[in-house]
């Protein structure tokens, strides 16, 4: 079988056969039986899946700064490599653990006051009750209001709007708690920042999908959920609800709420009103298996926005993966994490290259892909659909996700597909792991380098995502994070000539939601910003902290750790105007304070996250743990402009 990389190398049938039985399901109906069962639509919210699966990357927020302890914003020590781990509450030198085995020892200074004591107590000391409080339904929608930043001036580069999506309604149509947060309806938060006045206009609204509105009117569940709250096939169990809760995408002046098991929903970028489900100017079909990813990618060098969809077929044992390559918005990168000078609705999406579909063997489970100059990079974990579980799914006794089986004896496979459509996909067997979120991939000196959040330590078996369901308890109420698999920022380097790989762990702590400077997307990068846990003993824990991983010199990697009851959300990198260094920019993240049930936007200097937030914006309403966001530079309508757009809109208020 030709490897697709050149005409002289080939790949053995054995290595190509290593791909896993499918784990993706991308449609909206599933028919069983050898003849009838030809489509499985499993809306995979993979990004969020990582959040809960391995120490949820609890995207959350913090209380109004006036109520915060001063210690929350004090700098923490640099990450150490071989330093001995100090015990809790000791005096003398403090070590926050290590990010990388090759790091150079570099210790901080012992805290001298009681207010600094939190630095010592961070070894696994997160507040579980505070963490669980972040899985409650959002109290209300907020119409636009103006709020002042506190704690420091707002950098002039932060003229624009930050959007973030998340699962914020955690009850079904009849008021019962959802078993899994990934099944919750989406709510989009918009924060428009004006550095000159030091204020922001804040608003948050539910994504009003037709299905959500139908359930609201019926006051009962009408559609099946993916991760829990199943329905019998004869009572709606074959139609999965598009919860539109995973991500937001800005492209050519339009804002979309994304969920990879269905089509996007367009939103008004000012009022956040839901305009409806769309096909992206006819690029996405209208069939039950026509979907669009919740994790689009930007290739910065070519200013190309990449979208994808996939459909794992358990009957055929193959997964077609479709890729779109769109011209990006005018004025610079305004895609995921971009910072252009946008206007509203600048025309139709235009393909730079024709849509292409590649088929890979196995049942692929694809939440995220990476993109290099020449390749789409798809990581496929060893998961397959377990037909023996179908009777329980048919009867509504378990959700479709509980039909998945992880086989730890098989490899994870890296599929490399040429962006020009030439050749066939190349499969590179790796060690078994999950990799739902990638930081970046690039090519250099005949090698392909992928930095990813790789989960290891899974136990095989059916229902591996939720192996011990208990009636009446949600997955987050009974999970034991210490026993969960662990995700670490890991580098895989593949020799494109021999298809051999090497592996290097870049961050030893549990870490998730990795991001880079978007100007480096698809090219060589040095730094990765990510969420990480407070554990130094190798076990999983809630991802509270913000870390900066130096892939060249681990001794220069740093971390900022909040109080045990405060949880960071996904970091968003905003490049600094005129910046010459890769880390010239800012990190935006939502903080959730589970003690006070309050939220805030925190802004960090990306070059020195260990120093803590340089300014922060308290929010009027607490926002639950959430998922993915995006920054749209230059989009800065006034409060009056947003309010005019909101006129006539219906807000649900408190419920």
Structure description:
The chain has a five-stranded antiparallel sheet with strand order 1-4-3-2-33, covered by helices on one side. Strands 28, 29, 30, 31 and 32 form a five-stranded antiparallel sheet that branches. It is globular and about 55 Å long. By secondary structure, the protein is mostly beta strands. The chain contains seven helices and 33 strands. Helices cover 7% and strands 31% of the residues. It has helices at residues 13-16, 46-53, 128-133, 210-218, 390-394, 475-478, 639-646; strands spanning 142-148, 160-169, 185-194, 199-206, 247-251, 254-258, 265-267, 274-277, 297-299, 304-310, 318-327, 351-361, 370-371, 375-380, 383-385, 404-406, 412-418, 426-430, 434-444, 447-456, 461-462, 486-495, 501-505, 511-515, 527-533, 543-550, 558-560, 566-568, 572-575, 585-593, 598-605, 615-618, 629-633.
Radius of gyration: 23 Å
Structural class: mainly beta
Question: Which spans have pLDDT < 50 for at least 5 consecutive residues?
Answer: 1-122, 330-341
How many strands?
33
Q: Please bin the fraction of helical residues.
A: under 10%
Largest sheet: 5 strands, antiparallel
What is the subunit organization of this protein? single chain
Total helix count?
Answer: 7
Which strand order do you get reading across the main beta sheet?
Answer: 1-4-3-2-33
Q: Quick one: overall form?
A: globular
- What is the residue-averaged pLDDT? 77
Strand content: 25-35%
**End-to-end C-alpha gap:** 59 Å
